[in-house]
Amino acid sequence: MIIKERVNGVLKLLDIHYPMNDKCYLNYEKPYELMIATILSAQCTDDRVNLVTIDLFNKYPSLESFAFADVSEMEKDVKSTGFYRNKAKNIIEASRALLEEHNSEMPSDILELTKLAGVGRKTANVIRGNIFQIPSVVVDTHVKRISHKIGFTKNTDPEKIEQDLMKILPKSHWIRYNTQVIAHGRAICKAPTAKCELCFLTQLCKFYIKAK
Q1: Is 161:144 a contact under the CB 8 Å cutoff?
Q2: Measured between alpha carbons, how far is 98 from 90 in angstroms, rounded to an integer?
Q3: CA–CA distance, 142 with 130 (Å, rounded to integer)
Q4: Active site residues
Q5: pLDDT tens-digit profile of 111-165?
Q6: Does the pTM of the predicted model rise above 0.85?
Q7: Tell me: the pLDDT tens digits for 164-199?
Q8: How far apart are CA 43 and CA 141, in angstroms?
Q9: Is the Cα dihedral 100, 92, 126, 27 positive or negative?
Q10: Which of 24, 52, 64, 77 is least enclosed, having the fewest CB within 10 Å?
């Protein structure tokens, strides 16, 4: 089966089984809150981040309060998300940069976004897709794992996977693909043991076909 046929088949089944609206699994109200939540989500589950940000966004109700927070105090606030020292430092530095260099506004340009502390391409694309509705491919652990399994990419580097997916996915599915694959990764194609017997993608999945 050629890649175009497999892509169309996978996207059609994802649309059937998962919501077609572009859903963000991180809770936020303001653009900078999404940036902070996404920084915290590195090597941490969205559910854990959402528990932490309930108190975090109440304690620091403005961009200014994040920008001038005490780093030791911030470390305590985000400790349960892991890698808390780097995350605390990056949150403060990125917030200060938004305040001082961008007039408190979130930039939409990916190069400007990735200049912010702790903001890589994944975080930048989450912001671009959810805040600005700019078609963006977000490569998280679910997208990386499942895209490789179904044969959409042979790469392991997230940026190379992003480029591969941009080439084969229609722009209309760039954001949706991420949210649907997250749902699939949580429900069926779990790590480390996938529930292949329940999967509706088996006939299109290179990993499953090869394992048979």
Answers
A1: yes
A2: 12
A3: 18
A4: 122, 140
A5: 999 999 999 999 999 999 999 999 999 999 999 999 999 999 999 999 999 999 9
A6: yes
A7: 999 999 999 999 999 999 999 999 999 889 999 999
A8: 9
A9: negative
A10: 64
Q: State the CATH architecture for 31-131.
A: Orthogonal Bundle (1.10)
- The one-letter code for the residue type at 51 is L
Domain coordinates of the chain in residue numbers?
A: 3-22+138-211, 31-131
CB atoms near residue 173 (< 10 Å): 21
7 falls in which pLDDT band (50, 70, 90)?
A: very high
- The values of phi and psi at residue 27, to 5°, are -85, 135
Displacement of CA 64 from its chain's centroid (Å):
25
Retrieve residue 60's tokens.
């620091």
State the CATH class of domain 3-22+138-211.
mainly alpha
Question: What tokens appear for 103 in the block?
Answer: 């007039």
SS (H, E, C) 136-170: CCCCCHHHHHHHHHCCCCCCCCHHHHHHHHHHHCC
Nearest to 118 by CA among 174, 42, 191, 49: 42
- In this structure, which amino acid lies at residue 38? T
Residue owning tokens 């997230």:
158
pLDDT at 74: 98
Q: How many CA atoms lie within 13 A of 157 on its CB side?
A: 4
